[in-house]
């Protein structure tokens, strides 16, 4: 090239330089053009389609507006996605809550949730049925369960100190006065290491199980006692018959008044011992119970008439509803008669005169109904020390009692599938409560009558 420049003229040199400049400028222009197309193509990939025409223009304001619109579109899409996810989580939470409510409502164990202020925030139907109380929710637990209830004391201790109670057994009385044995587990509600926010109480009604255990234990004891006592009683009666025979001979043959008096006392004591042995055999011997319908209304009326005739100074009456049960009429009459006689004798020295009331109540249950017969008196009541021993054989508070009357009553009632309990009345006196299963036909009739009402 230097050779050419040297040999060429000046004008030719400038022409060559100008040509190279034009060529270089053309190359720069072509490079800028392709660079702009390259960056424009990149924006087409990432920017919304409506912005292509704007992006190709050289207007900065239009480009910024289009970019903001693209950001807004993406934010709206993200907002819709968030709304969809929020809706899914809400539906999932509602489904979980419904499932939790169904599980709580249908669980066989009773559930009570008490908050830190002592208000029952949640209670399932099993808890209301086990406690015999309707509408437990949003009530103060001490007011709903009773200030003196053992369950109230356990919940109060759990809320105060956080103590956990596992498989405790408590006695609870419902509004109707019926006793229930409950198995309870109580634990505090905490959030981390914070203070106690409430208590959870799980309940199980053990009344039927406890009654069944008592009945089984009583039957086993009676069977063992019957085997042991049968031979002993037989020997006792033989010996008493011999003693009585010799005493009668002495009384008839001797002319001495003193000897005759002694013989009479021997006969009296042998009669008393024979009576005790006979009553003991009634208690120990297995009962042969018939399976017949027994109307309780006429049975109670006969008992009232009999005791009223024997003790005219005692006012005895009956009230309420009496249904039919299944069993042996003679044995049931003996049980009610013993309880009524005891009540009349207990209130014989009442200041305003003795009063005995036999109240009947037909109670509807889920599977079947039962008859409750309560015998009230206005006597001095039952001593607290004697209450746990009332139905034990040979325990008595009477001067001439054998201690087998209440034991025989309990045996008869238990053999009929029922139970008997005693308690003192707040207004004075005692109450003996006999519970017997009703005939199924009567229970169904009572249910239909209540449903139609």
Between the first and last Cα atoms, what is the distance in angstroms?
126 Å
Shape: rod-shaped
E-strand count: 12
Percentage of β-strand residues: 15-25%
Determine the CATH topology of the largest domain.
Answer: Heat Shock Protein 90
CATH architecture of the largest domain: 2-Layer Sandwich
Classified in CATH, the superfamily of the largest domain is Histidine kinase-like ATPase, C-terminal domain
Largest sheet, strands/sense/barrel: 5 strands, antiparallel
Overall residue-averaged pLDDT value: 78
Structural class: alpha+beta
Residue share in helix: 55-70%
Which stretches of 5+ consecutive residues score pLDDT under 50?
Answer: 1-11, 42-57, 442-453
N-to-C series of helices and strands: HHHHEEHHHEEEHHEHEEHEEHEEH
- Please work out how many helical segments DSSP would assign: 13
The CATH class of the largest domain is Alpha Beta
Radius of gyration over C-alpha positions, nearest whole angstrom: 48 Å
For the record, the count of structural domains works out to: 4
**Largest sheet, order of strands side by side?**
2-1-5-4-3
Q: What would your notes on this structure say?
A:
The model is unreliable at 1-11, 42-57 and 442-453 (pLDDT under 50). The chain folds into four domains: 2-42; 107-205, PAS domain (Beta-Lactamase, 2-Layer Sandwich), CATH 3.30.450.20; 210-284, Helix Hairpins (Orthogonal Bundle), CATH 1.10.287; 292-452, Heat Shock Protein 90 (2-Layer Sandwich), CATH 3.30.565. The chain is 55% helix and 19% strand. The chain is rod-shaped and about 170 Å long. The protein has 453 residues and is α+β, with helices and mostly antiparallel strands.
């Amino acid at each position: 090239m230097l050779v050419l420049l040297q040999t060429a003229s000046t004008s030719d040199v400038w022409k060559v330089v100008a040509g190279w400049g034009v060529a270089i400028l053309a190359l720069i222009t072509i490079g800028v053009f392709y660079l702009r197309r390259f960056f424009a193509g990149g924006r087409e990939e990432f920017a919304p389609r409506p912005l292509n025409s704007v992006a190709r223009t050289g207007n900065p304001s239009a480009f910024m507006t289009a970019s903001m619109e693209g950001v807004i579109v993406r934010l709206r899409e993200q907002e819709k996605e968030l709304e969809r996810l929020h809706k899914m989580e809400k539906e999932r939470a509602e489904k979980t809550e419904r499932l939790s409510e169904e599980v709580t409502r249908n669980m066989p164990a009773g559930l009570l949730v008490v908050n830190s202020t002592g208000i029952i925030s949640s209670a399932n139907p099993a808890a209301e049925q086990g406690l015999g109380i309707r509408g437990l929710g949003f009530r103060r637990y001490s007011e709903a369960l009773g200030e003196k209830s053992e369950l109230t004391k356990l919940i109060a201790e759990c809320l105060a100190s956080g103590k956990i109670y596992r498989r405790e057994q408590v006695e609870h009385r419902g509004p109707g006065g019926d006793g229930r044995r409950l198995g309870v587990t109580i634990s505090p509600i905490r959030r981390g290491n914070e203070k106690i926010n409430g208590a959870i109480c799980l309940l199980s009604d053990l009344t039927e199980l406890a009654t069944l255990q008592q009945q089984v234990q009583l039957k086993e004891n009676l069977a063992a006692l019957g085997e042991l006592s049968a031979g002993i009683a037989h020997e006792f009666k033989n010996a008493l018959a011999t003693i009585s025979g010799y005493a009668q001979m002495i009384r008839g043959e001797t002319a001495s008044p003193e000897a005759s008096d002694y013989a009479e006392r021997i006969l009296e004591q042998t009669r008393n011992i024979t009576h005790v042995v006979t009553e003991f055999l009634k208690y120990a011997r297995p009962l042969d119970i018939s399976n017949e319908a027994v109307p309780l209304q006429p049975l109670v009326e006969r008992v009232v008439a009999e005791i009223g005739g024997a003790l005219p100074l005692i006012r005895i009456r009956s009230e309420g509803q009496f249904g039919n049960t299944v069993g042996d009429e003679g044995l049931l009459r003996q049980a009610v008669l013993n309880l009524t006689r005891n009540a009349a004798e207990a209130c014989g020295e009442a200041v305003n005169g003795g009063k005995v009331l036999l109240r009947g109540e037909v109670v509807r249950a889920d599977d079947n109904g039962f008859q409750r017969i309560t015998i009230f008196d206005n006597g001095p009541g039952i001593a607290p020390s004697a209450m746990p021993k009332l139905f034990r054989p040979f325990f008595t508070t009477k001067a001439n009692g054998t201690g087998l009357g209440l034991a025989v009553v309990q045996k008869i009632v238990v053999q009929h599938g029922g139970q008997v309990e005693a308690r003192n009345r707040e207004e004075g006196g005692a109450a003996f409560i006999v519970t017997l299963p009703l005939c199924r036909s009567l229970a169904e009739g009572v249910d239909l009558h209540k449903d139609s009402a």
